[in-house]
Each structure stands twice: as C-alpha cells, then as structure tokens.
Hints:
The protein is α+β, with helices and mostly antiparallel strands. It contains 4 helices and 6 strands, in the order ββααβββαβα. It has helices at about 40-55, 65-70, 130-140, 155-165; strands at about 15, 30-35, 80-85, 95-105, 110-120, 150.
Amino acid sequence: MNEHDPVPSPPPVDGSAGSADPAGTASARPLVRPARLEDLPAVAVLAAEHAAYEKAAPPARGLAERLGAVLFPPGGAAPRAYCVVAELPGGELVGYATCSPEFSTWDASEYLHMDCLFLRDGHRGLRLGPMLVEAVVDRARALGMAHVQWQTPVWNDGAIRFYDRLGATAKEKLRYTLPVGDQA
C-alpha cells in the first residue's frame, strides 16, 4: 500500500486476461498500473497530447508538480484523485486515466468520476483502453462506490463506440465552465 493511499491500490492489470505467469514473462506484455510520482512528467506530456486531441488549450506549465500535490499529497494525506498508466514493455507510458470521488445529489451517494482516459494514437486496439477502465472500476469498488461516470466530446465517435462496447450508457448534457477569480 502506498503511504499516501488509504485504500489499497489494485494490482497492475496486464494483457494476459488473468492467466498465471509462472515464468515471469508478464513484463513482455503491456500493463496498466497505478501511477508513481516519477511517472508524472510523462503523464503531463500525455495530458498535453490529450488536450491537443480534444482541440483544447494545452495544460499550463507545472502540470506534473500540480498533479503530484493532488495524487501524492505530503504528510500522508489521502489523495484527492487517482491515476493509472498504460505501460509498454520497456517502460514507455502510452496512456493514462485519472479519477476522483464525486457526489450525486440525486442518488445521495458518491461515485467515481473518470476525468481523463487517453491512449496515444497507434496504441489503441491493444486492449489497453479496457484495462484502464477496469483499473478505474477496481478503484471505485475499493472505495465502495457503485458506479463510474465520465464524459467525452460528442464528435469523438471512436471513444463513443468504445464506451458502447463496454456496456456503458450515455446521458446527454452540456458541460459548462465558469472561470473564478485569478484562476480565469
């Protein structure tokens, strides 16, 4: 258990579909695992690629440090968010998912909000997407939450088909952002 993580991290998910690996060859397969502090510069690069893919402004400088404060807070405090990464054999990170607890008034319960799910182009179709979602679902279960929610741009047909294949259901809404104070 990570000293900053009050809920045990789910074990890494590899591409073996649950098969045992007595020979120790799992490193020859891509895997999804909890992010580590040293992964944050690569996660920041992936987040910038994700923003570009969604035709959004790039993240502000210092993203890795800001993520570190939220994902790995000092003094053993509980993290406000969680991150899992998709890692190729050899250690290259090619995707990530982030999530955080949120509250639903209508359900009077918490759920896990998956804020980001991204895989670099050329790495989709390797089962890493389902593995990232599975890791987020495992986190929700570990936190005692009944469901995960997320959103995707309406033009992102590939993501929509992927989420439909997972059995997820869509609810149409518009997402608004209102700048506040100096953060605008």
